[in-house]
Amino acid sequence: MVTGGVKHIGNDTYNASLRLTFADEYIILVILTYINNESLEYRYHTKAILQHTRNSPFDLPVSPGLSPQGYLRYCTQEESGTAPGRWVECGSIPGIERCGQWQLDPVYDFDQIHGFHWLPYFCQLHHYSNDEIKKCFAKQGWSELVFTGDSHMRYRTYHWVTRLHGSCHGCIKTHVKMVFDKIPRIEWVFDARGTRWPLTFSNISVPYEIYVHPRTRRSMFSKELPSSVFSGKLFLMNFGHWLLRESTKTAFMTEKLRSFLEAIREMNHSEETPKRFLWVNTVSLPWREDRAMVEWLENPSPSRVAQLNGVTDAALGNGGVQIVDAFQISNSRIGATHDQTHYAKRMERGDCGGVVENAISNVIANALCNYHTW
């Protein structure tokens, strides 16, 4: 399982790069998808244009090489969220910390690939226990957590309720709001397109909303955040997949991010103790051709999600919001969704998790709590 990237050079020429973990023989399959002049795919699944490149697939032998410098040290807070990495089999690299409790239970491996953990190339991550996270949050004074976004953030909330409260028996599907009143208090607020943040502040101009599909629930996007959100100390946020279904205009996305970032700054205005904001970027998903997706626009392809993340990461990161790259963690395990969409699942035993979501939560814990080496 690898990470990589592709850049368009010009004249239908692309530069692709891969980072491979182990010396071995690999088979590479290269598929081109149609890209329009907005650099985003825009089509229905039934009209998808896929084309194998010449001589693909091809073999790629990789010889042993030197280990990256410093890969045994622990990642800093900044590196924890964005350092390039890959999925590595537990115990396969000497000197790397053993897998934690969330990697050892095969019930979370929805793709049936068991015993792997997410590991950056140039540093390692501590596997935080639930108790260690609670101690960290208490030390930082993060007594109230707020999650905002779409259903991916809702399931992420369920997972964090499990980690911090021990179970998620009260996690029921709702599109508006949920509150978990144990310590730390956890609040989930629906904001699938980032609209409600700027609508909360009357002095922020909001870009005109684009509703491509008539079934879009407009009223749910056009209400300000509840007043309870203002007492939050730590905010975990994302919106992406709904935006990609509705619009391909990068100018519109940039304007929306502008208003969203203004709202974050306004939330911190006149605060003696600044609030902490974390942007968990949009996860990669497998393409779907079932009726639910075809009747809307396509479920965004990985390349299209990567384009959006490039825009959002730059805008919010330059605005001082810490980024956690959930896309690269999910992109090489897109088979690990339990319903073709979500990487976490509510279990009958009362918990909520999934191999990819568990890895994302551990990266978040390192990004927030890793003040020292272990």
Structural class label: alpha/beta
What percentage of amino acids are in beta strands?
A: 15-25%
Most strands sheet:
6 strands, mixed
Based on CA inertia axes, which overall geometry fits?
globular
General description of the model:
The chain has 374 residues and is of the alpha/beta class. Helices cover 28% and strands 19% of the residues. The protein is built from 11 helices and 16 strands. It has helices spanning 77-82, 130-140, 151-165, 196-199, 218-221, 241-246, 250-267, 291-294, 302-318, 326-331, 355-369, and strands at 3-10, 13-19, 25-28, 31-33, 50-52, 58-61, 85-89, 116-120, 144-149, 177-180, 185-190, 234-237, 276-280, 322-324, 345-346, 352-353. The chain has a 6-stranded mixed β-sheet with strand order 10-11-9-12-13-14, sandwiched between helices. Strands 1-2 form a two-stranded antiparallel sheet. A two-stranded antiparallel sheet has the order 3-6. Strand 15 (345-346) and strand 16 (352-353) form a beta hairpin. The longest helix is centred in the C-terminal third of the chain and has 18 residues, at 250-267. The radius of gyration is 21 Å and the shape is globular.
Please write out the topology.
Elements: E1 3-10, E2 13-19, E3 25-28, E4 31-33, E5 50-52, E6 58-61, H1 77-82, E7 85-89, E8 116-120, H2 130-140, E9 144-149, H3 151-165, E10 177-180, E11 185-190, H4 196-199, H5 218-221, E12 234-237, H6 241-246, H7 250-267, E13 276-280, H8 291-294, H9 302-318, E14 322-324, H10 326-331, E15 345-346, E16 352-353, H11 355-369
Parallel strand pairs: 9-11, 9-12, 12-13, 13-14
Antiparallel strand pairs: 1-2, 3-6, 4-5, 7-8, 10-11, 15-16
